[in-house]
Design a protein that fits this description.
heterotrimer; A: 324 residues; alpha+beta; Uridine Diphospho-n-acetylenolpyruvylglucosamine Reductase, domain 2; Uridine Diphospho-n-acetylenolpyruvylglucosamine Reductase, domain 3; Enolase-like, domain 1; B: 217 residues; Ubiquitin-like (UB roll); DNA polymerase, domain 1; 5-stranded mixed sheet; elongated
């Protein structure tokens, strides 16, 4: 790790004042500290935000849910409120099968962690390019990479919670020197223009403060992750669904895929196919089939098409309580 | 938040070179904004670190490890694991992956298991930190450690302290697991290379029974 | 000559007991000190600078800025300007400093100008390795051409198993202190007695000047025999820093990249057979890499070595990867997988139960092991409920979860190594055993105590066992499953010798001669007349002030019937495959293993359990992933170099094949053999479940789904 100074503010205002291009926000640290050990992050100052009380906690708010940025996976996983109304979030949190990470990792940190693309982590930049500008993933080892690449971004968004939060229509509140703003969770992510760019829309002097999840109102929701291991492992593909019901039929559906694109992927065609229909295993299978429309897999990750089909089908069936 | 506090924070702008600690000492701080009483030196230090960055050179910190306050001098970049291993000679926790994956460095912080390789020592101030060394009381091994021995849940033993702490942390929150499958899933944050999981899962269940028995006794 | 032979099975008191390990509580309470745990006075920290490239020439190296970094005490250069590095993470320079952080700052401050050179890092496609393949020359036995021409049926396939890395949890490394009188050396080693001379040779000092001490080692698996470059550099750094001790242990990425790997193995295999399953011919073209030394041919065909007509070709492929090291049963897991997969494919083609095919072909196995295999297949099949659960390949129902069973086999040598033991009996009755050996976590300390306790008729707790110091009588390195045979035999001989001396001292007092005495139940007594006895303590008191110290040696050329070699084992895997995700779940693993006389069945079972889990990792998760273009290892971490967790292994059932006829052969090593057959068993179980061979392990979701896709489109 490169040497840095450490600040421990207790207010958002102080924290923002301490931030700059050369500073980084420290929450759970589960990604940042490792990035720093690899010299992939070399901030001159760390601003710990865990001492800012208002950034913590999970509470009911306006019929929905307010999740503080420093609330942990563990708090999400053990919240009765989350379990009863937003099982998709609880399932996503429990998908992080290490209790240590669940205790340390925060909601904000999950959303804002950097991609695990091994070219990026090996120092080839966020777009994973050789010094002559060649993208390495398409000609190299891409089993964990995107099947929905955007431009020359082949890494996958690593967030466990983003698919569920997006499917549920959640918003992120962001504080900066010029006040607060609110964006959709999907808007946290951008495609970097250059290999040294960032995939996050947050500015260096901004802090993600909280997540607001709208009222569930009986929305059936579930997250299904395909993981290789039971022990701590990254999902190979994730599907999160939220189904607004009208009687026994689906009034509106949202299906979001994780770990298959540089941002979470909205499976719009699959979601549309559910509208107005009654839940069934066949319908779930059909949605799974539609979810891979437009995919563009590479040499080593065609299998992710099947994983997406399965994850979408299983998430829908799980949300609807349909047995396989 | 009082106005007074805001003013202090403004004055303590990182680039001002203003020494918050000296200031607090100088005025004796009787304001209610910082807790309503005269601050102890430690509290003053903590308040100071709240608004003024520390480091990058080594700074004095106090860690509460196994119930005892420990004064150390560390650079902010030193992890809790390294501080415990090199400065406190608490070497039960091991450095293996050093990237928050394998669990060999597991400690319990404020009642919850964490990867100490991925916690900064300076960030662990004010927390109750338990290392495996705290499990031996008056020379008597903890029921979890005993269960690991009885079920031969270790070979080279390098991952073992991490597994023991992960088990302790799990049983503290879930005192009555009944199946080895539950036990296995509960330890998803720890890895072993020699392949001791069969014994480990048995040890978790047995330790749970032993600890429950101890409580009832 | 005294009678050193093991007491008969029925009369043993300490040997054969399911005791827990001696150092268990020390380890499980975090008190056990590994050398990587030691904090020495004035300790310095060493860090290596290693190559980011798979192949490069160093145009220039400038350490001057590093030397100025606060806290840095010394910098050494390993690869000089003009020289080449041949794999990523190869050691280039080393820095010592007063803190690890400062040492890392020092490494960062070293400036190197690299000229990047071409590399080859992938070997799975032999046609793409250019001139990196060196053919070993064809070996022909019998008339393979005729065998294939006359074959009633033939089967062929291509199979591959990648490079794995040892990933010892305690990384390689050491503390070294250079003093005027010699070097104090605290390594992490499997070779306490041999590593000192190795370091001395590299330092060009007399071997007598290196003191080695190690109480515990955090994993070795065959990769920790030598002092290595990092041992030498730590010593040089210590010398250059005025003799302050230097602690230099590898970080995880370096550990995975250069501190040991198991070579890959790929093979195209063709078999000729009769319709009844008898194999009549074998042809294999194999290739392997373990870095720049290439990779040797696995012993093919495995176990069925006497197939009458064979044609074998092998190429060693040089790749720019870290060098191979011995790994629990060098080349055997690869050979077992390649062979057993081919045999299972033949059985599937014939529509036969693979166990029948294995049994049918035991005629080609070494005669000495045939009975063992036959016995073990039967036992393993019973434990795995084979007759109830096995089905024809792919005949696993219409659901998405397909269950299947598969089998794999092993063989190994495992004769005891050269070992010297010093046994001391003190006048106060306490007894001590000293060996320059090591306990890798196999329970060496515990079994030595059991052997000594058996000889002396004392409780096991009464025996103090001291290992881990090169001041003790030398024992060979722990490799090749040779330790248990070696140290138990030398301990037996030393303790029998010491006991003889004790008998000589007390015989007269008991009105008898030494040859009439025995040590049983804490007493020295006249054989057949328990009334004439002395307690152990009373007998030892007669020594006056003079302790008895006797040596014992296991000479591998004459093991006196105490140990031998040659074992068999059978493993069966029971898996479920989710064909919608390609994820393989272990239901059950069964291992039946012979290792001759079993000193401690509990510890033996732990070895086998661990070996099964290692096989699960190898079959389903582990592989070193190299990037062809950049030459980098893409997963030098524990996140994407995947190891199974406690919930990934299913149920594991172990049966130690303890029988009179095995026991009477003496002790045979156990570390390696159970690591051999598991990968084959799991791969075969998956083929049985999903109806198609996944040619390459590990059986990751991508490979499983790809094989299913190919089957569908075929």
């Amino acid at each position: 790790m490169q040497a840095f100074e450490y600040a421990n503010p207790t207010t958002v205002k102080d924290a923002i004042a301490l931030l700059s291009d050369d500073a980084a926000v420290l929450a759970g640290g589960t990604d940042l500290i490792s990035m720093m050990k690899e010299y992939l992050a070399t901030p001159k100052r760390l601003v710990n935000i865990k001492s800012i009380k208002e950034l913590g906690g999970i509470a009911k708010a306006g019929g929905g849910l307010r999740i503080g940025a420093t609330a942990t996976f563990d708090e999400l996983a053990t919240s009765t409120l989350v379990r009863t109304e937003y099982p998709s979030l609880q399932q996503a949190a429990l998908g992080v099968t290490s209790p240590q990470i669940r205790n340390m990792g925060t909601v904000g940190g999950d959303l804002l962690q950097r991609p695990r693309c091994w070219y990026f982590r090996n120092g080839f930049g966020i777009l994973g390019k050789d010094k002559d500008g060649t993208s390495l993933a398409p000609i190299g080892e891409n089993r964990y990479h995107a099947i929905f690449p955007k431009g020359d971004a082949y890494y996958v968004n690593p967030s466990s919670l983003a698919p569920a939060l997006i499917a549920l229509g959640a918003k992120a509140k962001i504080a900066g020197p010029n006040g607060n703003r609110e964006v959709g969770i999907d808007e946290l992510y951008v495609i970097p223009g250059t290999n040294s760019g960032r995939e996050l829309s947050l500015q260096p002097n901004e802090i993600l403060t909280e997540i607001v999840v709208p009222a569930a109102r009986g929305t059936k929701n579930a997250t299904y992750e395909v993981r290789h291991k039971e022990a701590l492992d990254w999902p190979l593909a994730t599907a999160s669904v939220a189904l607004q019901m009208k009687g026994t039929s689906i009034a509106k559906a949202s299906i979001v895929l994780g770990h298959v694109g540089p941002t979470p992927v909205m499976a719009a065609a699959a979601a549309n196919a559910l509208t107005g229909k009654t839940l069934s295993a066949d319908l779930a299978t059909e949605a799974g089939r539609l979810a891979v429309e437009g995919a563009n897999p590479m040499s080593g990750n065609t299998y992710k098409l099947q994983l997406v089909r399965t994850a979408v089908k299983r998430a829908i069936m799980q949300a609807g309580g349909i047995k396989a | 938040m009082s106005k007074h506090h805001d003013e202090l924070d403004e004055k303590a702008h990182p680039n001002s070179g203003f020494s918050r600690r000296g200031f607090l000492r100088g005025v004796g701080v009787t304001s209610g904004a910082l807790g309503g009483a005269i601050l102890t030196e430690e509290e003053a230090e903590a308040a100071q670190s709240a608004a003024t960055p520390s480091g990058p050179a080594a700074v004095p910190i106090t860690l509460t490890v196994n119930g005892k306050p420990q004064k150390l001098t560390v650079e902010p970049r030193v992890t809790l694991l390294d501080a415990c291993r090199t400065q406190l000679d608490l070497t039960g926790a091991k450095r293996v992956c050093d990237r928050g994956t394998c669990g060999a460095c597991t400690m319990i912080m404020n009642g919850k298991v964490v990867y100490s390789c991925t916690v900064l020592a300076i960030d662990a101030q004010g927390k109750q930190i338990s290392t495996i060394e705290s499990l031996t009381v008056a020379g008597k091994a903890h029921p979890v450690s005993q269960a690991f021995v009885k079920n031969d849940a270790q070979q080279c033993g390098y991952c073992t302290p991490g597994f023991v702490m992960a088990t302790k942390g799990y049983l503290d929150r879930n005192p009555a697991p009944t199946t080895e499958e539950q036990a296995g899933k509960a330890l998803g944050g720890n890895l072993c290379r020699c392949g001791t999981y069969v014994g480990v899962r048995k040890a978790v269940i047995e330790a749970a029974k032993a600890m429950k028995g101890a409580k009832n006794a | 000559m005294p009678n050193y032979s093991w007491p008969p099975m029925t009369t043993r008191k300490a040997i054969g007991q399911r005791l827990t390990r001696h150092d268990g509580i020390e380890k499980a309470s975090g008190r056990a000190k590994y050398n990587s745990d030691l904090n020495k006075q004035d300790l310095l920290y060493g860090v290596l600078l290693t190559s980011p490239y798979a192949h490069a020439r160093i145009r220039s190296i400038d350490t001057s800025a590093a030397e100025r970094v606060p806290g840095v005490t010394a910098v050494t250069v390993i690869v000089k300007a003009g020289e080449e590095v041949n794999w990523q993470s190869q050691e280039i320079a080393a820095v010592a400093a007063t803190s690890e952080q400062a040492a890392r700052d020092g490494v960062r401050a070293i400036k190197i100008d690299f000229e990047v050179l071409p590399h080859v890092v992938r070997e799975e496609d032999l046609s793409k390795v250019g001139n990196r393949a060196t053919p070993a020359g064809e070996q022909v036995t019998g008339d393979p051409e005729k065998a294939f021409k006359e074959a009633e049926v033939s089967a062929e396939g291509q199979y591959g198993i990648p490079v794995l890395t040892h990933c010892c949890l305690e990384p390689h490394g050491q503390i070294v202190q250079w003093t005027p009188s010699g070097v104090n050396y605290w390594p992490s080693t499997q070779n306490v007695s041999g590593i000192g001379p190795d370091l001395a040779k590299n330092l060009e000092i007399p071997a007598t000047q290196v003191k080695v001490h190690q109480d515990h080692i955090g994993g070795g698996f065959g990769s920790k025999f030598a002092s290595d470059r990092w041992g030498l550099e730590a010593a040089r750094l210590s010398k250059a820093s005025g003799g302050r001790p230097v602690k230099l242990f590898l970080d995880r990425a370096t550990e995975l990249n250069i501190a040991g790997n198991r070579p890959s193995a790929f093979a195209k295999i063709k078999m000729a057979a009769k319709r009844d399953g008898t194999i009549t011919g074998w042809e294999s073209t194999s290739w392997a890499t373990g870095g720049m030394s290439g990779g040797g041919m696995p012993p093919l065909p495995y176990v069925f070595t006497n197939i009458p007509n064979k044609r074998l070709n092998h190429s060693a492929v040089k790749t720019n990867g870290g060098p191979l090291r011995a790994w629990r049963a060098p080349n055997h897991p690869q050979a077992s997988f390649l062979t057993c997969a081919a045999v299972e494919d033949l059985a599937a083609k014939l529509g036969m139960d693979p166990i029948e095919v294995f049994l049918k072909n035991l005629q080609w196995a070494p005669e000495a092991r045939r009975e063992s295999y036959a016995h073990q297949f039967k036992k393993a099949a019973e434990m795995a409920e084979w007759s109830k659960r096995w089905h024809r390949r792919g005949d696993s129902g219409s659901g998405n979860i397909k269950r299947g069973l598969g089998v794999g086999i092993c063989t190994w040598g495992g004769a005891g190594h050269l070992s010297n033991c010093r046994a001391t009996i003190h006048p106060d009755g306490s007894v001590q055993i000293e060996l320059g050996s090591q306990d890798l976590g196999t329970g060496t300390r515990t079994i030595i105590a059991q052997v000594a306790a058996e000889t002396y008729g004392l409780p096991v707790e009464a025996v103090k066992v001291s290992l881990g110091d090169n001041a003790f009588p030398a024992s060979n390195a722990s490799g090749g499953s040779t330790t248990v045979g070696g140290v138990c035999s030398s301990t037996r001989i030393a303790t029998v010798n010491a006991l003889e001396k004790l008998f000589e001292q007390v015989a007269t007092g008991l009105n008898t001669t030494p040859d009439k005495l025995e040590a049983v139940g804490g007493k020295i007594q006249v054989k057949g007349d328990a009334a004439k006895s002395l307690t152990w303590a009373a007998a030892c008191k007669k020594l006056g002030t003079q302790s008895i110290t006797e040596m014992g040696q296991n000479d591998p050329k004459n093991p006196k019937g105490l140990n031998t070699q040659g074992v068999a084992g059978v493993q069966i895997a029971d898996v479920s495959v989710d064909v919608e995700t390609g994820v393989v779940k272990m239901n059950r693993m069964v291992a039946v293993q012979d290792c001759g006389l079993v000193v401690n069945p509990r510890l033996a079972e732990s070895q086998v359990l661990g070996a099964c889990i290692m096989s699960i990792c190898g079959a389903l998760m582990e592989e070193r992933i190299m990037d062809a273009r950049t030459g980098r290892v893409l997963n030098p971490d524990m996140e994407f170099y995947k190891l199974a967790g406690a919930a990934d292994i299913g149920e594991i059932l172990v049966h130690m094949d303890i029988r009179e006829e095995n026991d009477k052969r003496g002790i045979i090593g156990l570390g390696e053999p159970p690591t051999v057959g598991g990968i084959a068993a799991i791969a075969n179980a998956v083929a049985n479940a999903i109806g198609v061979r996944v040619p390459m392990v590990p059986l990751t979701p991508d490979r499983v789904l790809m094989a299913l896709e190919e089957k569908r489109s075929a």
